[in-house]
Amino acid sequence: QSSIRKYKELPAESKRLVRIIISEEYERCHTREWVEFSCIQPGRRRRHCGFLLREGSPTDKIRIKKKHMIEGMEFCFQIHVDQYNPIFKKHDILILKKQPASHNEIGIFCLNEIYYIRTLYQVDGVRRLRALNVVEPDIEIKDTDSFICIGTVIGLVYGPYELYSENKAGTK
Predict the structure, then answer these.
(1) What share of the chain is helix, strand, coil (3-state, %, to 5)?
(2) Which secondary-structure segment (H or E) carries 2?
(3) Taking burial as the number of CB atoms within 10 A of a residue's CB, which of 37, 74, 113, 144 is the most buried?
(4) Model-level pTM greater than 0.85?
(5) What is the pLDDT of residue 23?
(6) Cβ partners under 8 Å of residue 40, min gap 6
(7) Taking the CB of residue 120, how many other CB atoms lie within 10 A of it?
(8) Sign, CA torsion 63/67/73/78
């Protein structure tokens, strides 16, 4: 109460300086609670629920509270369609690790320059990308195909986060 009383007696310029110091200190203290990662956004849709990565725009970032981090988390991907129900919903943010997916693991795969969120299925030397819903067909990966896994899904972002890029900002 003493500090508030003193603040009220300060001239306008001094009050502005106090508010600046409080804001800066507040930001400094709360920044330690957050961690930042890249967050990939899909571009145009392609066949079999595939997509291109968004080109020509800055990499989006996501800030989440450290207490909501998952061990091994390296980057994120935000879903923009309902094609992955019931596993994932529109606007879910996937947490990924930069490692190739193993049999029966969900990952983001690049097959012949088209990206997919699917489960890798490998039996008797045959590799398939299994759809996460019953509507889309599985895709068989041939030896002649260009195929890489850009990351394995290890979870979803929960709790408060900030998603932003150089051009826009949003929070949840």
Answers:
(1) 20, 40, 40
(2) helix 2-8
(3) 37
(4) no
(5) 87
(6) 53, 54, 59, 60, 75, 76, 77, 78, 108
(7) 21
(8) negative
